[in-house]
Amino acid sequence: MSTATAELGLPGAGTENSVLVRCAGVEKSFGQGETKVRVLRGTNFNARAGEMTFLVGPSGCGKTTLISIIGAILSCEGGEVEVLCQDLRAMKRKKLADFRLAHFGFIFQQFNLLPALSAAENASIPLVARGASNRSAEHAATELLHKLGLEGHAHKMPNQLSGGQQQRVAIARALVHEPDVLICDEPTASLDAASGHTVMELLRDLAVEGGRSVIVVTHDNRIFEFADRMHHMSDGVITRTESADEIEAHEGSSA
Amino acid sequence: MLRVALRMLIGDKTKCLALVFGVAFSTLLICQQVSIFFGLLGRASSVVNDVREANVWVMDPSVKTIDVPFPLRDTELPRVRSAEGVAWAVPFFKAQAQVRTRGGNLENAVILGIDDASLVGVPDKFVLGGIDDLTMPDAIAVNPAGFRLLFPGEELSVGRTLELNDRRAKIVAIVDAAPAFAANLTIYTRYSLATRFTNNGRNQLSFILAHSAPGYTPEQAAANIEQLTGLKAATSGAFRIESIMYVLANTGIPVSFGTVVLLGVIIGIAIVGLTFNQFVVENLKQYAALKAIGVRNLRLLWMTLFQAGFVGVIGYGLGLAAAALFFSQWVAQKSDALRGFYLLPQVAIGVAITAVVIVVLSTLISMRRVLVVDPATVFRG
Questions:
Q1: Residues of chain B found within 8 Å of residue A107, distances taken between Cβ atoms
Q2: Inter-chain residue contact B379 with A68, CB threshold 8 Å
Q3: Fewer Cβ neighbours under 10 Å: the N or C end of chain B?
Q4: Looking at the complex, does the CB of residue B376 fall below 8 Å from at least one CB of chain A?
Q5: How does pLDDT run across B162-188, given as a tens digit for each residue?
Q6: Nearest partner of A77 among A131, A2, A129, A25, judged by Cα
Q7: How far is CA B297 from CA A1, B124, B225, B272, B300, in A?
Q8: Which chain B residue shows the shortest CA-CA distance from A98?
Q9: Chain A closest-CA separation from residue B365 CA (Å)
Q10: Which residues of chain A have a CB within 8 Å of the CB of B297?
Q11: Residue A145 to residue B133: CA distance in whole angstroms
């Protein structure tokens, strides 16, 4: 359970297999009139603590929209969205920002590291944003970077790091403030197979084993083996959910 | 987060330098022009400022500035002296004359004739010689800028003679008078000599300098003089302001300098605005990422303002330092044309406020971009 969750006394967080993210009948459209597009059509989605939940599906099926709503970045028009038993739809914008900072970690496809900051400074941003001193935040970030195998790289700038190393810095940034939910958007899309595999192992070791819920949006079937649960999405609805055993069996038959 | 903002800014060295240059350039341009403007206005009243002993100036009612006197009758002097509340009154002559320099050129000079008996009307400070030297035959005192105009490349000295309207004049003193508005060469001499140097005929009394008697304010003395003589009487302060206002109202100086200052502001906004906007646009994805992480809009706004404020402070500091150097003893004070022009503290404060306006106006559009950027864009590849 994260420090922030413990401080808030939120129920359920971190308990093995407890549902941290619950979406029911989520509706979301973009555009107006004739150009209006219904992206989510009553989508149901759950993610549990200590699990790596994959969200897969073709481009344009609504995966990014769904994780944006779960991540308190987008609002939805209908349905229920609960994270850590908190109704996101009832929160005001400022509170949503605070909620994101306290409970979410984000890993983006393009890393989105700040090019002017060193690896340690990039990784320390969530702690600094929460009011920690630069020194203590960088100390914590550097320790985490060590765990992620980036010893000696803490003071390097992003352009001095390889793609895999940059993604590890992004993982450090996502984990440094001990969030309850980690949202990963195509975390291996910019990496080669070996780096992608390493990144997923690190996520499993550091994130899932810390009792967090990790939601991974991906097209990369090379990493399906890491999924504890996989939601298949199509045209704005979850069409199928597979458990780890089912995924393994499915992947085995495919091979 | 302010350190993050600073690192983001400094990380883009080219734009950071362009932003600092924009503010520094505007600051220098505005400081320099406004200071010269005020310096020129100061010259419009420099003769009034240099006469320390008198506190009331008496003149023809049509006179509006020290530079355009209208002669009074000599008989007006005793009438002024007889006004209630007047301690003393002395004649003061002011005219322009042509002086031939060592190189044979003709230069305009302001000739100021002071009372032969009291020598009232000369500035306090002498660089060479003294006030009593003006009692010598053909004696004149000139200001340093005037001396260098007459004798280029020579050290300040006394004893030189020159030709003033075909009459011999001998420099007996160098007086630290501020350059006048109309000419760089200012000549002080006795009233009787001044009228001879200019040959203006009868009625050569330009002004009457007076001082209020104990128990009377200068305003009361001036009012009594006006009532008794029908002449115009003004306190030194009022006449100084009137002379400045005359220049403001009757010359193109305010428009000319105002235009340059406005250009400085516009150029500053253009350079800073465009560069800062480009900087923000290029970093929009980073701001979106920060937003997605949970950094509030208000905090991002502070970060943007801090970045703008940082370049503003550095740019203003550099611009002000360059302006201070320009007006320093090493540059402007060495030039007779610019001598007496200073960077006033009030100008520095005014330009600081202008720099804030430039920076704020330049960053408004950029700040809006930061505020409205959709954090969801970070998920869009």
A1: none
A2: yes
A3: C
A4: yes
A5: 877 778 889 999 998 877 776 778 899
A6: A25
A7: 28, 62, 69, 23, 5
A8: B294
A9: 22
A10: 97
A11: 85
With CA atoms as reference, the chain A residue closest to B296 would be A97
CA distance A220 to A240: 18
CB spacing of A129 vs B293 below 8 angstroms: yes
Residue-wise pLDDT for B276-297, tens only, equals 888 888 888 888 888 888 888 8
Q: Is the domain defined by A3-11+49-62+102-254 classed in CATH 3.40.50.300?
A: yes
* Edge-to-edge strands, sheet with A229-234: A104-107, A181-185, A213-217, A51-56, A229-234, A237-243
Q: Is the dihedral of CA B128, B130, B131, B137 positive or negative?
A: negative
* Domain range list for chain B: 2-44+252-379, 73-230
Per-residue pLDDT at B221: 94
Contact B219, B235 (CB under 8 A): yes
Chain A environment of B289 (Cβ under 8 Å): 106, 108, 112, 114
Smallest Cα distance from B26 to chain A, Å: 28
Three-class secondary structure of residue B303 per DSSP: helix
For strand A181-185 and strand A78-83, is the pairing parallel, antiparallel, or unpaired?
unpaired
Segments making up each domain of chain A, as ranges:
3-11+49-62+102-254
| Of the candidates A140, A145, A147, the residue with the CA atom closest to the CA atom of residue A3 | A140
Give residue for tokens 């890993």.
A107
Please determine, for the modelled complex, whether the ipTM score is greater than 0.90: no
- Could you tell me the pLDDT band of residue A252, with boundaries at 50, 70 and 90? low
Classify residue B262 by burial, with Cβ atoms within 10 Å: 0-12, 13-18, 19+. exposed
Check pLDDT > 50 for residue A9.
Answer: no
**Chains A, B: CB pairs < 8 Å:** 86
Q: Which residues of A touch B10 (CB under 8 A)?
A: 116
Of B12, B293, B299, the CB nearest to A106: B293
Nearest CA in chain B to A130: B295
Q: Which of A249, A165, A179, A240 has its CA nearest to residue A208?
A: A179
pLDDT of residue B208: 93
Chain A CB contacts of B15 under 8 Å are none
Q: Is the pTM of this model over 0.90?
A: no
Which of A94, A112, A117 is nearest residue B285 as measured by Cβ atoms? A112
Q: Is B105 on the interface with A (CB under 8 A)?
A: no
